[in-house]
Amino acid sequence: SQTIHQWPATLVQPVGSPLSLECTVEGTSNPNLYWYRQAAGRGLQLLFYSVGIGQISSEVPQNLSASRPQDRQFILSSKKLLLSDSGFYLCASRTDPGYTFGSGTRLTVV
Amino acid sequence: QQQVKQSPQSLIVQKGGIPIINCAYENTAFDYFPWYQQFPGKGPALLIAIRPDVSEKKEGRFTISFNKSAKQFSLHIMDSQPGDSATYFCAASGFQKLVFGTGTRLLVSP
Questions:
Q1: Where does residue A46 fall: left (phi above 0), alpha (psi -120 to 50 degrees), or beta otherwise?
Q2: How far is the alpha carbon of A97 from chain B, nearest alpha carbon, in Å?
Q3: Distance between CA B17 and CA B3 in Å, rounded?
């Protein structure tokens, strides 16, 4: 079965600072990978997905970017964080037909 | 067309009651409908899922009812327990993506 590793679990960053969140997947190869964001008390919004190395699709225009340098590695980045980037960031992998989620990163921008 | 509408937003039932959460979708290309359970500070965990060629699926105390013609599906929790108190999300999968409903916060009182 798949395991998704996300780190760090919590992060407090000042406005204007850069961001790098990493997600790695074990137990599968060539997975579809996803980044979701969940604002406090809200649903899950799909930010990016990737069907392969170097292939990134963006769902909403925003201050964030994603990269997939290796088959089982997915990175979420920002050059300059905004207050509105605060939230709970979740990485997911598609295991046909289902999806498995990581434990998430709680990002607070101050 | 890729939205999933979920109701109610919140729900309180007594122990032993049967909470019902409803979802509706628009795009008939969705081909997989999972339900996720999320506890505070954790990632969503797959609870139960159904494909559109089946009208009902039961796993333990959890049942999905699926109405393909109405494009609606619902989650029933039989003999609900305080430990079931969590946020529940319906979702629909298609186009390489998983789209979530807005979530239902369930509280099961002792």
A1: beta
A2: 7
A3: 29
How do the pLDDT tens digits run along chain B, 110 residues long?
Answer: 568 999 999 999 999 999 999 999 998 889 999 999 999 888 899 999 999 999 999 999 999 999 999 999 999 999 999 999 999 999 999 878 889 999 999 999 99
CA B87 to chain centre: 10
Task: Calculate how close chain B gets to A78, using CA atoms only, in Å.
Answer: 22
Task: Measure Cα distances from A2 to A12, A25, A51, A96, A98 in Å.
Answer: 29, 7, 17, 11, 11
Listed residue (B86, B82, B84, B78) closest to B103, CA to CA: B86
CB B25 within 8 A of CB B100: no
3-class secondary-structure state, position A84: helix
Chain B residues within 8 A of A101 when measuring between CB atoms:
36, 43-45
What residues are paired with A68 via a beta bridge? none
In sequence order, the 6+-apart residues with CB closer than 8 A to the CB of A72 are A24, A25, A26, A28, A29, A31
Between CA A100 and CA A87 the distance in angstroms is 19
- What token pair was written down for B85? 């108190």
- Reading the block at residue B106, the tokens are 């369930």
